[in-house]
Amino acid sequence: MKKRVLIFLAAIVISAALTFSGCADEKTASSSMESEKSEIVSADSAEDRTDKKEAAGDKQKLLEEILEDQGFEGTVYAEQNGKTIASFSGGSLETGEEITDGTVMPLGSVSKQFCACAILLLDEQGKLSIDDTLDKYFPEYKDTENIKLTHLLSMRSGLPNYGQDMGKIVSVDKSVDENKAAVIKWALTSHREFKPGEKFKYTNLNP
Question: Which residues lie below 8 Å from residue 206, measured CB to CB, with a gap of 6+?
């Protein structure tokens, strides 16, 4: 009887030892696998970062090569998700001053497309209508009830182009707001070249 009990106890001890050993091996193997996964992820992340840096470098190099080859003078930069991914500045102003990314230059008609886009977005949001007439915004001026925002957007307003008269309208001695008011007054009190919507004619007074 004692012999059987001893054999039984020995079997339990051996079984427990084997079970413990198996669990320890599994934990070791699991820990090893997690470590390997972590190393792989870290390696992939490092490769991704390297790829992104190389891609950014390629964009910058490509932009420089294209603009330098064309003899471009000015400033260009490209953004993605609010971050500059490539930029270029080169050439000089008429004064001989070198052009940098901080040089202030007139945009000219490049701004028209952005102004038009802003108006269309406001129309889409219900904050205005492209069928609004100018008297809604400038009631102090006569004959603006026939000019719609859509006429301005399509270059069919009939408003004249200021051309060579700009020097008589604005002055360096006035503030930006004063000059803006002067341009608006000149535009809305000048003789119409044709009835709004009658035909197409490009003018800088349209956005």
Answer: 112, 151, 152, 153, 155, 157, 159
Identify whether 174 is part of a domain. Answer: yes
- Provide DSSP, 23-37: HHHHHHHHHHHHHHH
Instruction: Return the amino acid letter for 105.
Output: M
Structural domain for 10, as ranges: 2-90
Place of tokens 């608006």: 184
d(CA 76, CA 131) in angstroms, rounded, equals: 36
Predicted TM-score (pTM) of the model is 0.56
pLDDT along the chain (207 residues), means of 10: 39 41 45 53 53 67 90 87 89 89 83 94 97 95 93 95 83 91 92 94 89
Distance CA 7, CA 13 (A): 10
**Residues 44-83 as b or e (16 or more Cβ within 10 Å = b):** eeeeeeeeeeeeeeeebeebeeebeeeeeeebeeeeeeee
Domain end residue (candidates: 90, 119, 147): 90
- Helix, strand, coil fractions of the chain, as percent rounded to 5: 55, 10, 35
Domain count within the chain = 2
